[in-house]
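Two proteins follow. First one:
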Amino acid sequence: MVRIKRVKIHHEGTNILIMLFLMLAALNIPLWLFMPGVAIPAVCTAGCAIVYAFVFNFFRCPKRVYTGPRKNQVVSSVDGRVVVIERVFEPEFIKGDAIQVSVFMSPMNVHANWFPVDGTVEYVKHHNGRFLSAYLPKSSTENERSTIGIVTPEGHRITVRQVAGALARRIVTYAEPGMEADIDEHLGFIKFGSRVDIYLPLGSTVELSLNQQTRGGLTPLATLPEI
């Protein structure tokens, strides 16, 4: 017997999906009632169904449990594609040189954001900014963004930055100072395409390569150095 998994929708999308359904219904019902023939109503309904399916897919929210080792382990925060691996200066929480690993999310990816490590949230700050394409390197410092600083049980300082993109106009951050970070839990949500940057201490071993696909809460991203 095949067991069909129930598709869970993230609570950030519930009201949007309800309103979109009502708007599309209001558009389609008069067409079927008053438009002669079936060609035009059928084409309109099919188009609306595609639009609704796209938005529905965007807000899906799978339950994930990381089963690998957790000590000194960093896990990808999001579904997407690795677009940056480089050494940079991170001035906000680490306040020093760090290894930046950035994952870009297309509108087709799950957009829930998971904590990349276990630990304690010590810093959260939202920055207003522009809405440049999330592909651009300067989007990390010029776009609308939220920065979360986490200290692991071993004492490593990790920075996570949710970055808005050209389509993403709302960043939702659940993390708060003093909160316990857990790899299996969500730190936030970004609506409609964006990226997440993770800054790691020097000496970390990145386990991904450029253009590799990741799954939030599941794909090992890096191993932190022993302290």
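Second one, unrelated to the first:
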Amino acid sequence: MKIANFGVEEWLNVWENDAIYDIAGSSIASFTLEEIISIDGTDPKEFFENLFKVKMNYGWIEGSPEFKQEVSKLYRNISPENILQTNGATGANLLALYALIEPGDHVIAMHPSYQQLFDIPRSLGADVTLWEINEEQEWMPDIEELKAMIRPNTKMICLNNANNPTGTVLDDDVLKQIVTIAKEVDAYIVVDEVYKPLDPTVQVSSIVDLYDKGIATNSLSKTFSVPGVRVGWTASNREVADIFRKYRDYTMICAGVIDDIIAVHTLKNKEAVLKRNREIVFRNLEILQEWVANEPRVSLVFPKAVSTSFIKLDIPIDVEEFCIDLLKTKGVLLVPGNRFDVPKHARLGYCTHTETLKKGLAALSDYLRQFD
């Protein structure tokens, strides 16, 4: 099987440990272990003393009953038995694509987007059509273009909602139009939903609550700020979940016992987690908006309270060269846009810790002055 290098992950693997100001990521400022355990008043010492008694066996293969129950509460119509635990959302995406895509299938994938959603289908022998989003339309897709792309053998439409790297949100009106198109050919819709919009005025349902052949993938890494547990999941109807069970046995036996326990604790306290993260998103978004307004070499279609943004840079050099030199001279880490097939742009993760954002933006502005 041949597959392209994973642009974003390859970049971060090489460069992220060199950063002083990491404003490349797309998670909302990660909790420390102590912070997430104590978020509801739990004594961390007592919590871990109880863990000492837990057997380090395989635990619950599909995720504990408590985990499946808590995840099911995120949806309107999904029962716990149709939740399958995975190794992060990357594991969930892999499972969905590996289980359903065969050589010769037609797949439509939003682009730019998370690279798994188009390059894994390609590697499995699918014919992939990229549904391009562009800055001139504020990174929103054109429904008429999707209608023209659909074929009798379209097996799946792959979306990232909200979108990585742009922060674009497909609201319920857009999602329902996509569902209508998918129904015409009985296609699945897989949506990577790791970026939950934290603006309460934005109505975005999970695809599994809008469409029976919808498949939601998600994790605790982005909106819930606990990427270190590496726990994700798929949510689907029963028929699809049973297909996934077979393929899951080849890709993942189980998550760690301790990871499951921390995941359950996080999900049980999701309201406190989201309250904390909503404050970070809106505070940092205001800082980013002010910075862009005063930075002549940067423009941005602002995200709707989503933790990732995609700045456009007015620079006379290649964006990857720019990002490498920026990191080496100023310690500021961005992800160059060419890693998403979009030159002259960069992913800026503004939902890092606020002081890191402020210092990183100041250093970035200082670096940009050489081009004036």
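SUMMARY FIELD: The radius of gyration is 20 Å. The chain is about 40% helix and 15% strand.
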